[in-house]
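Can anyone check this?
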Amino acid sequence: MASMKHFQLWLATTPIGVWLSKAVAARFDPWIYKKTGGRLTTSGPVVVPQLVLTTRGRKSGEQRDAQLAYTEVDGAVYVVASNFGGEHHPAWSYNLQANPEAVMHLGDQATPVYAARLSDDAKEVVWERLCLNIPNYAKYRAKTERNIQVYRLDPRSDASAA
């Protein structure tokens, strides 16, 4: 599994890997992940910690699923809006800016969450831990002039979104 993780992380830094992730995996992975209780994606067994984040589209109002790598730091779940180091933030982060209430599908559990965008200072406190889990974040940060956003997903007390 360790070699598969290294391969997947390497592939995500290549142009073909980014294309595959955006054109294929982004469309199918959330569905596959949710149907298999978090065990599978288009590339096979999950080897990088992943979740599906369901947000409300800021323009459409429709539910939108995004398959994301995540890192747990001191019991809190963090997701990084790296967009592979692209020029723009990923769509799901714009959705969270418009409405920070979302649903986190982690394995076979769905949890209503509030997404808190970290300040630059707070991001620096956890950045090293995020990069230990997903080394590509450092490469993506070096690749773009954009300030890559990090969100902490905090469980909500209401269950209206589940």
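Reply from J.R.: I decoded it. The mean pLDDT is 87.
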